[in-house]
Amino acid sequence: MRHGGKVLAATAVLAGLVASGPAVQASEDPGCAAGVRFTSNYTEAASGLRVMSVEVANCGAEALQLNGYPQVSLFDVERQPLDVAILEGTGGIAILDGFNDPPQPITVQPGETASSAFVWRNTNTSLEPPQVAKHVELATAPGAVQQPLIAVSPQQSIHIDLGSTGRMGVRAWYR
């Protein structure tokens, strides 16, 4: 019985070590490798016009300085880059309140957020298949590290259905 008790105790210790390893890894936020996390909370769609909210969270230890537009790259379902013009502001796609406001300096403290948005039309006037972005990578400014845009509730996935328009407008960072 004594020997069985030692085996049981050793098994319990090993199980505890194994269990604590993944728990530590799971608590790390992979979306914050560069100190920021990009999320999209919703997409509004009306008569072919689409507007997607975008948020940057400062999950780093230092203040984040923003003054401009998110740097955006769009990819299809196979992660191939799409040939899309990324425009500052609406680029004439639509008239939307605040969307064409000039960039302003913003300081985002650790734990705080700032916002942006995308606008596009789902118009297809070509015999070619429509362009659909299923993956988006963003950076806070030119030269900054790009990271994936994470879709959160209620969407759970990225779907930017550009049709054949070949362009998408981006709003400057704002609060």
From TrEMBL:
Presence of the UniProt keyword Signal in the record: yes
Residue span, DUF4232 domain: 33-173
Pfam families: DUF4232 (PF14016)
Matches recorded under InterPro entries: DUF4232
Keywords: Signal
Annotated signal sequence range: 1-25
Protein name: DUF4232 domain-containing protein
